[in-house]
């Protein structure tokens, strides 16, 4: 029988954020994240630099998370870590640390699927906060993934729609790069879009069957549009930045919401959740809230700190796997293409 209370240390290192969190049951005691500024110089994440930064950050981040939680490392019941998907080098740092720490403390090790954890972040308990009822649909959008997932239980998930090429987050960042915004550009597009007219410029919506997405064609169309306008007026981007950002954001958000509406109608499910890094986008949040009012959805949007990559979502997933007795062996290895 597990000792009470149950404390889970979560470790997240799938890309360029090193994060550690400690949960007590379904409640979060700490959630600490260290970013990596070095990637701004290159306009995107450089895998080798990311893994090196993880090696520098992981020990102080874990130490801070445990101290903020007000416990000792000997109080931990298990260590949960991101096994994948993600960058191989980054995952290797988190996996290796988690295995060594669990072995040293002689406590269980729990592997976690990063995308599954984004969805289960909705089950982090807070006073007065409800959690989604099963079944529900989750629109999971990030720099690497865009999916509509039917969630029938905590660990019974089925992808019913996904991108056939690029992810929505990658489209935001690419559009930002085209107009000269620094990495990561998605949040900057959101910032400028608040001051612009979303109907100023029209961009094509891809005609992709069923519930799948595509953003590669939109990126190409946006690039050609900007290049053509700059040939006519070299100051176009500078003068119309707000409208450009509002228009491309409106297009991406419309593509996402249209598919989610279709998924809700096809499945008859009206409980809707949002997850992943792009769920921090204010345009997407506002659009889903508007659709929730029209469609009668029961909508769940995570707190900002649980949108981007974070260890709290790893810890809560680890807790539920702990309660099921689902543990990993010391022979576990990272899985960069880990599927739900």
Question: How would the blueprint of this fold be written?
Answer:
Elements: E1 7-12, E2 18-24, E3 27-34, H1 47-69, E4 78-84, H2 88-105, E5 109-113, H3 114-120, E6 136-141, E7 146-153, E8 156-162, H4 168-178, H5 186-193, H6 216-232, H7 236-267, E9 271-275, H8 282-295, E10 298-300, H9 312-324
Parallel strand pairs: 1-4, 4-5, 6-9, 9-10
Antiparallel strand pairs: 1-2, 2-3, 6-7, 7-8
Helix pairs in contact: 1-2, 3-9, 4-6, 4-7, 5-7, 7-8
What is the number of domains?
2
Number of strands: 10
- How far apart, in Å, are the first and last alpha carbons? 29 Å
What is the chain-wise order of helices and strands?
EEEHEHEHEEEHHHHEHEH
Remind me, CATH topology of the largest domain? Nucleotidyltransferase, domain 5
Question: Averaged pLDDT, please?
Answer: 94
| Order of strands, widest sheet | 3-2-1-4-5
CATH classification, class level of the largest domain: Alpha Beta
Helix content: 40-55%
Extract low-pLDDT stretches: none
Radius of gyration: 20 Å
